[in-house]
């Protein structure tokens, strides 16, 4: 009698492109940050070409044109990786429909992100569009992290693997994380790093927003500590990723304090942006670890019974 496939076997090619997709989406946040923090936002004044009549930056654009064009160049391999993940997931869609659907969503957002990038240039780095551009990138990073997490588990029904109170607190923490990132986007939109010296900012007091941004940041750190201790005492499934998240959040708090007290140095701001995306990605995996495949839960229960009987 043939058992239905769990879809656990994942081809090496799919694993490679899935990891490349995640890495490229983190890298493009770093390069996008470099564009803003070096004042290279309009290094290429047009899209999809760099300047009218030239796909690549001309010598007159100087280093700013090179930095902006380098950021755009990352979009090519990023799109290729997303397409490859879709095609490779499509071949396994009968066994892993979850991965196929997730790959389609990621590809769609990558295309949307490219269009948003075009409008950012056409609208000469409007603060709201730039903030939205970054937010979409963080969402894509979270989805690629979710793909990697689901890729390592069998398909099928899932069941809660943690106490109900722990799951509720985790979801509350996810809301605090989202608020922290969103307020951070507004704070950056009011700060000095606009991407070009002629760009008009939001007009909101950046120092005030920095304090407002810190409040949910501290709450996030405190909640992460509580979740990590709880998961450690009860040996809960999300523990390894909570430890990773806690490390990122603590570094993020330290970087935030440093940049606030030292006049927002560009490098610190860039590190802060990348760490925000990594903390969101790690927390995405934490949320997914709240549940486990039903078959895995049954196997764990059988092992526990065997140990108890022995």
TrEMBL record:
Pfam families: COX15-CtaA. Pathway: Porphyrin-containing compound metabolism. It comes from the Bacteria. It is found in: Membrane. InterPro entries: COX15/CtaA_fam, COX15/CtaA_HemeA_synthase. Keywords: Cell membrane, Disulfide bond, Heme biosynthesis, Iron, Membrane, Metal-binding, Oxidoreductase, Transmembrane, Transmembrane helix. Coiled coil: none annotated. PANTHER family: HEME A SYNTHASE. This is COX15/CtaA family protein.
């Amino acid at each position: 009698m043939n058992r239905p496939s769990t879809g656990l076997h994942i081809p090496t090619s799919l694993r490679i492109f899935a990891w490349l997709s995640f890495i490229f989406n983190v890298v493009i946040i770093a390069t996008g940050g470099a564009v803003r923090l070096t004042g290279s936002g309009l290094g290429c004044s047009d899209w999809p070409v760099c300047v009218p009549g030239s796909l690549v930056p001309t010598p007159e654009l100087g280093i700013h044109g090179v930095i902006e064009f380098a950021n755009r160049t990352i979009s090519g391999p990023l799109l290729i990786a997303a397409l490859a993940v879709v095609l490779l997931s499509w071949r396994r869609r009968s066994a892993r429909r979850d991965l196929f659907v997730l790959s389609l969503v990621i590809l769609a957002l990558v295309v949307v992100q490219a269009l948003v990038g075009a409008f950012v240039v056409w609208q000469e780095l409007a603060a709201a569009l730039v903030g939205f551009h970054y937010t979409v990138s963080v969402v894509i990073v979270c989805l690629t992290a979710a793909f990697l997490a689901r890729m390592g588990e069998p398909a099928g029904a899932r069941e809660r693997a943690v106490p109900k109170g722990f799951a509720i607190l985790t979801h509350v923490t996810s809301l605090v994380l989202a608020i922290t990132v969103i307020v951070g986007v507004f704070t950056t939109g009011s700060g000095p790093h606009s991407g070009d010296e002629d760009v008009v900012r939001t007009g909101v007091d950046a120092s005030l927003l920095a304090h407002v941004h810190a409040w949910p940041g501290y709450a996030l750190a405190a909640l992460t500590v509580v979740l990590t201790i709880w998961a450690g005492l009860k040996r809960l499934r999300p523990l390894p990723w909570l430890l990773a998240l806690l490390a990122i959040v603590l570094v993020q708090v330290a970087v935030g304090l440093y940049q606030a007290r030292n006049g927002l140095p560009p490098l610190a701001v860039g590190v802060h942006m990348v760490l925000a995306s990594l903390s969101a990605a790690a927390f995405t995996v934490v949320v997914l670890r709240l549940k486990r495949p039903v078959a895995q839960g049954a196997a764990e229960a059988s092992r526990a019974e065997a140990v108890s009987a022995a």
